[in-house]
């Protein structure tokens, strides 16, 4: 496994969250000799919120989580996640697998099955061998530990080249609140539909409705602002549990909101940095649009464009392709008002290349690993930012060979 | 230059169109020693219609053609096309280049400048050296010949690996009408916005408004149904001239409509077959959708998906990715009603893989060069067909290196 050149130096030291314990195991769901199941046990009194893909072919697990997420809070809960098989498009058998796992976990942890949230990620359309997961539940239960989140992060990886985690500790109301999150994702990543697999835990005290609203709002500013390949997963799931063990109520807390935003954005960026085949991490900033929605259309058109992304892979400052992407986006734009920058370098303005721009300056900028493409439409105050990566031969190789 | 493995065996024998003469030349717009300008002279009494990209950053030439296309018909006309430089995002200088070429052609051919339609294709954002084109106009005029359409097809190529032409001769009202068309296109090809560069000629007699309506309708069934890479050009242009030299009025002729459809579809398919790096020609058929618009959304989601297209490149019958694309399309779909076929092979139905399906059958099918992916949503009668190609390493190589 070649680790992405954009990977963080190491997995972060995440704070332990009072009221949550983790375990992982090798269940052999698809491959032998790799961790592929995680269990998170969440204490009674916690609230659980979630955001899910809107795909019309979303997996049995996602549908089950959707049905459970708004239900009675307060009882203990569990997150169970396997990699290797997505349990998507597996018909009634898929629903049965979810029920079997939920019942088995509920029995062992002494919680209602309606509080067991499952996720599966991997190949679509193959029967989930849920017996292999159930056979590991006693081992998982025995190994539960508050410090086990790093193993959990490894257990949910598929084509990821590194585990993804992010945490914060913030002072609120004279006390201290902790947040720790993990994520997986590398391909089949597209914005505006949901997320990938993300699990966030906090010891803050917050009701379900408030947590759900917060999570939805921050998803729109983080996970919904990234794209690797414009393809949206059938399994995208973000689950968050708040145990309340800190005793600190964070409802309406700006500090908590900010800390959660940082954790979610960090995880979202880590997903892009592990984009299949990625060698460049690219921030696309759009302002001056007629509306924020228009700005998002332009940012997404640039971030999704295969021609922009292959130019980035080739370190070619081909700004004409950015003009193309603006043009096709469907957003209002005026050739003579828009300007384009690479980082601080003014590339184009007044409907043409800038007088001060040199091809050499653009080419030098493109050699960097962290790039900013900024477009000002010059119309009004609408703005949006998205994050993406380049499109390389390695992406094609990974995805032409995925199952063979 | 490696010719696409999907290319036709040879350029077709196109019928000569009475009232149209062609010439081509080496103007050195960007490269030396290759034909890069074509001129088509169209006799007085002809009607001219056109369909253009809706990109908000469309080129100076496209804006000029749009302004001219509905104007007074009847005078002689000309199409002038260069490759190597798109004259898009070139500010006021770009408008000046179009005017300079139009005036110079008009003077030499004795026609109004408002009847000179220009197209430019190639790199975006560089000043068009229009003097080099104007310097070749006398040579072009002297070489005009009714049989020169094959040279014109070569002169408009950019990353194309073969020239594209299609023609038909149809019996109508006891006489005979001829249609001949040429096209260029290989990358930056996406549906629903316009076309690539296409020029079609006929000796049929038909008024401007009827020809324009026909062209728009057939564009929606042909060029707007193909995609190579989901990126839309700033220069997409389809121009058609009807000289009336056959004396046969084709207004409301079903036979003419059908023949024009065949020519346009043939050219559209040839563009996909020359898709950058393509090794597979793929028809995506969707039926059973709630509406035709929904069917088109699903067909486009499949045809544009990088994950579907890389699987095709790898000859991997990864039908789970088709399920994913259906799910993300935004069209109404029901997991338990949709079915998927590879050619005649039933792959999935009733929300899961079909009992009769074997991975070996799917893998064998994928080895073919011409593939059909058929999705039945099982909801109502909406249907659509799109054509696409696979996504290979060669696509990335071509586009990471385009300008360097």
Briefly, what is this?
Chain A has 404 residues and is of the alpha+beta class. Chain A is built from twelve helices and 16 strands.
Explain what the structure shows.
2 copies of one chain form a homodimer. Chain A is an alpha+beta fold and 404 residues long. Chain A folds into 2 domains: 20-269, 4-Layer Sandwich (L-amino peptidase D-ALA esterase/amidase), CATH 3.60.70; 281-400, ArgJ beta chain, C-terminal domain (Ubiquitin-like (UB roll), Roll), CATH 3.10.20. In chain A, 31% of the residues lie in helices and 25% in strands. Chain A has 12 helices and 16 strands. Chain A has a 7-stranded mixed sheet with strand order 9-16-11-15-12-13-14, sandwiched between helices. Chain A has a 5-stranded mixed sheet with strand order 3-10-8-7-6, with helices on both faces. In chain A, strands 1-2-4-5 form a 4-stranded mixed sheet, sandwiched between helices. In chain A, helix 8 packs across helix 10. The interface between A and B is large, with 71 and 70 residues.
Key terms for this structure?
homodimer; 404 residues; L-amino peptidase D-ALA esterase/amidase; seven-stranded mixed beta sheet; globular
């Amino acid at each position: 496994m070649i680790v992405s050149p954009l990977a963080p130096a190491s997995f972060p030291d995440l704070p332990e969250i009072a009221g949550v314990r983790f375990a992982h195991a090798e269940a052999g769901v698809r491959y032998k000799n790799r961790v592929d199941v995680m269990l998170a046990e969440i204490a009674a009194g916690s609230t659980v919120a979630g955001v899910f893909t809107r795909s019309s072919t979303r997996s049995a697990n996602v549908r089950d989580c959707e049905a459970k997420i708004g239900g009675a809070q307060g009882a203990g809960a569990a997150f169970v996640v396997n990699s290797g098989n997505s349990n998507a498009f597996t018909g009634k058998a898929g629903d049965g697998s979810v029920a079997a796992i939920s019942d088995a976990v509920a029995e062992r942890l002494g919680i209602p099955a309606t509080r067991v949230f499952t996720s599966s990620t991997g190949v679509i359309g193959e029967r989930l061998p849920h017996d292999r997961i159930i056979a590991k539940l006693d081992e998982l239960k025995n190994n539960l530990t508050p410090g086990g989140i790093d193993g959990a992060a490894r257990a949910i990886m598929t084509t990821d080249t590194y585990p993804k985690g992010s945490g914060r500790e913030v002072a609120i109301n004279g006390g201290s609140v902790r947040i720790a999150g993990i994520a997986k994702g590398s391909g089949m990543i597209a914005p505006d539909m949901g997320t990938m697999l993300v699990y966030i835990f906090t010891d803050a005290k917050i009701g379900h409705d408030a947590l759900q609203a917060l999570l939805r709002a921050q998803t729109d500013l983080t996970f919904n602002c990234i794209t690797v390949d414009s393809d949206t997963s059938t399994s995208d799931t973000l689950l968050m549990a708040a145990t309340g063990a800190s005793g600190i109520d964070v409802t309406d807390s700006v500090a908590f909101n900010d800390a959660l935003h940082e954790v979610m954005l960090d995880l979202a960026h880590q997903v892009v940095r592990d984009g299949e085949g990625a060698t460049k991490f690219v921030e696309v900033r759009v302002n001056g649009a007629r509306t924020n929605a228009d700005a998002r259309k332009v940012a997404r058109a640039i971030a999704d464009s295969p021609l922009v992304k292959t130019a980035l892979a080739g370190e070619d400052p081909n700004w004409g392709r950015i003009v193309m992407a603006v043009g096709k986006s469907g957003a209002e734009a005026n050739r003579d008002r828009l300007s384009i920058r690479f980082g601080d370098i003014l590339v184009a303005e007044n409907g043409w290349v800038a007088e001060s721009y040199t091809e050499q300056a653009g080419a030098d900028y493109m050699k960097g690993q962290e790039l900013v493409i900024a477009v000002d439409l010059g119309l009004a105050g609408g703005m949006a930012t998205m994050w993406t990566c380049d499109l390389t031969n390695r992406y094609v190789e990974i995805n032409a060979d995925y199952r063979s």
